[in-house]
Amino acid sequence: MSEPTPSYTGPQRVFSGVQPTGALHLGNYLGALKKFVALQHTHDCIFCVVDLHAITVPQDPKMLASNTRKITAAFLAAGLDPERAVLFVQSAVRAHSELAWIFNCSARMGWLERMTQFKDKAGQDKERASVGLFAYPVLQAADILAYKATHVPVGEDQKQHLELSRDIAERFNRDYDAPGFFPLPDPLIKGPGARVMSLKDGTKKMSKSDPSDLSRINLEDDADTIARKIKKARTDPEPLPESIDGLKGRDGAANLVGIYAALAGTTDQAVLDEYAGKGFGIFKPALAELTVNAITPIGEELARLNADPGHIDKVLADGAKRARAIADPIIEDVRRTIGFWGS
Ligand code: AQP
User: Are 161 and 137 within 8 A, CB to CB?
Assistant: First the structure.
């Protein structure tokens, strides 16, 4: 019988990132930011604005710089404390690109060909998609493992990519005879809000790139806009059911119940216990009030921070320094393990 492979024994660390590809929405908030803010009190956390990921599709250079500051502002407005967690921009730390190349040589074509996000984003014309879009999950593995992060809070949409990060870590450890060198990172995808759907189509995830602004609630929306979008959200004429089973096949209704539960910090069933038998004429205004109370203070703080780019730049410069101090020695170890000259 073979010996069991020794597993990683280093410290626990959380890593996650958000792309600077446009204004953040309620899905990004509930699936990511809100969870990051809670984790900073219990874990060693590193959060990143992933601009290298953003350029896998064309970006306007001026917009990219301004979106990078805006996403940083959204982290801060949501309650992230840059003294507690490390907050920085991906391209400011070279370790990400270097490790991504090394991992390109560990990842297998067949693994990447199974990734559904590439299929969705490349659409019909995959011959014309960038190589970067195809290799996107390899860079994601490098982001996480450059810090030997053990836990990755993400929305449900990123689950498949996280599994690939584990495959890459395992393959590297085996190929270089370095058992336990990299941890196999665990996804943290629990709780309501892990998959917020479009307000116009309950079968599609809420997304920054959806052409319809009515499909999402942006963190920058004012109270009237939020209330109007919820009022117009696609639902059905039936009242809310008594149990979760009764939400089957009612995607729009299920989505609004899920949003309510995530914002109120409760469960879908607890929401149904309160609203069973009531129609959307009652439920939507209650949801609108809850959403306005949670989101508008963030929007106001966001506007204040967006007017102070000097402060954002200081936070990012400090974060990059702290991120390099963690990643650089890990990359040096990787270089030595591979046998690169000079290491
Ligand atoms: N609808 C969602 N529900 C729950 N979580 C979500 N996330 C995104 N959409 C939802 C989570 O937000 C984090 C940051 O995502 P991202 O901006 O890096 O990229 P994304 O997943 O590609 O987000 P979008 O809005 O769908 O952007 P576009 O339209 O540009 O592709 C991640 O943790 C993600 O899981």
Answer: yes
The chain-wide mean pLDDT, for the chain, equals: 95
- Cα 85 to ligand 1 centroid, rounded to whole Å: 21
The structural domains of the chain, with segments of one domain joined by +, span: 13-194+308-338, 213-304
- Looking at domain 213-304, which CATH architecture does it have? Orthogonal Bundle (1.10)
Q: Indicate if the pLDDT at residue 335 is higher than 50.
A: yes
Cα 233 to Cα 255: distance, rounded to the nearest angstrom: 10
Q: Tell me what pLDDT residue 1 has.
A: 44
90 pLDDT higher than 70: yes
The pocket around ligand 1, CB under 6 angstroms, is made up of 16, 18-19, 21, 27-28, 30-32, 154-155, 157-158, 194-196, 205-209
pTM for the whole thing?
0.93
Given this model, what pLDDT does residue 2 score?
A: 44
Question: Which amino acids are annotated catalytic?
Answer: 121, 205, 208
Architecture field, domain 13-194+308-338: 3-Layer(aba) Sandwich (3.40)
